[in-house]
Write a structure and sequence with these properties.
By secondary structure, the chain is α/β, with parallel strands linked by helices. The chain has 10 helices and 12 strands. The chain has 2 domains: 123 residues, Quinolinate phosphoribosyl transferase, N-terminal domain (Aldehyde Oxidoreductase, domain 3), CATH 3.90.1170; 144 residues, TIM Barrel. Helix 3 packs antiparallel against helix 4 and helix 4 crosses helix 5.
């Protein structure tokens, strides 16, 4: 993750939560009051968010001493101490909720991504995310997928072409949509086409697609479609693929499987922060 963007995002999150001031904390503690706090795992899974902890607490207390005991993507167990913060009590308490919200979400995404890959158990297929992220959190969400062993499908609308059903309907055909893209997009931009039938797969191949997606297709249908795609074209399966059915896609022949559920339906990890012992 870009440190400048992390800092910028955290500032906006703190402005939303702290606003003009933490009225509870400021009424109880002076600016000189210091404490020690520990971040502890209350569930098992993969950890993600070390830089969020480090940058987040230092935004509110530049002199804070922060020690991270785990690496992003590392397996953690219930009761494990993940980090320790020594510094301003007010800063620790004011930053707590924002930081916990983020690292709980990121650790949940990383854990879910690793779980998806383990269930699929097919090293020939890479697990990918989608653009179905919470607005404002895409950088964090996609980083968490990477920490879980997955890949980014595309970051946004600007870094790859993906011709979907509505593009095709409005353009009149896959052939016409691809032709128009090829006339305007640079040669470094890949073109992916979403398909739902063997007829559409054949048309996408003929039109010159770089990647073909099989959308909402069953595993057996995907196997039939992949046989129609030349070796030089990448393939992807997406749509209604979840942890409960991903095992059925093992050996289906695609290069990638993208799951929106990695980010739009993730269960947050259980992580807490507790003040251990006030120094004064």
């Amino acid at each position: 993750m870009n440190p400048l963007l992390i800092n910028e995002k955290l500032r906006s999150f703190f402005l939303e939560d702290v606003g003009t001031g933490d009225v509870t904390t400021e009424a109880i503690f002076s600016s000189q009051h210091t404490s020690s706090a520990r971040v502890t795992a209350k569930s098992e899974g993969l950890f993600c968010g070390g830089e969020v902890i480090r940058e987040g607490f230092r935004l509110l207390d530049s002199q804070a001493e922060i020690t991270i005991f785990v690496q992003d993507g590392e397996l953690i167990t219930k009761g494990q101490i993940l980090a320790e913060i020594n510094g301003s009590t007010a800063a620790i308490l004011s930053a707590e909720r924002v930081i916990l919200n983020l690292i709980q979400r990121l650790s949940g995404i990383a854990s879910m991504t690793a779980r998806a890959a383990a269930l699929l158990n097919d090293p020939s297929i890479r697990i990918c995310d989608t653009r179905k992220t919470i607005p404002g959190l895409r950088m964090f969400d996609k980083y968490a997928v990477k920490c879980g062993g997955g890949r980014s499908h595309r970051y946004g609308l600007y870094d790859a072409v993906m011709i979907k059903d509505n593009h095709i309907s409005a353009a009149g055909s896959i052939t016409e949509a691809v032709r128009k893209v090829k006339e305007s997009a640079g040669h470094m931009i890949k073109i992916e086409v979403e398909t739902t039938s063997e007829r559409e797969v054949k048309e996408a191949v003929e039109a010159g697609a770089d990647v073909i997606m099989f959308d909402n297709c069953k595993p057996d249908d995907i196997k039939n479609c992949t046989a129609l795609v030349p070796d030089g074209i990448q393939t992807e399966a997406s749509g209604n693929i979840t942890l409960s059915n991903i095992v059925s896609y093992k050996g289906c022949g695609v290069h990638y499987i993208s799951l929106g559920s990695l980010t739009h339906s993730v269960e947050a990890a259980d992580i807490s922060l507790l003040i251990e012992s006030p120094k004064q």
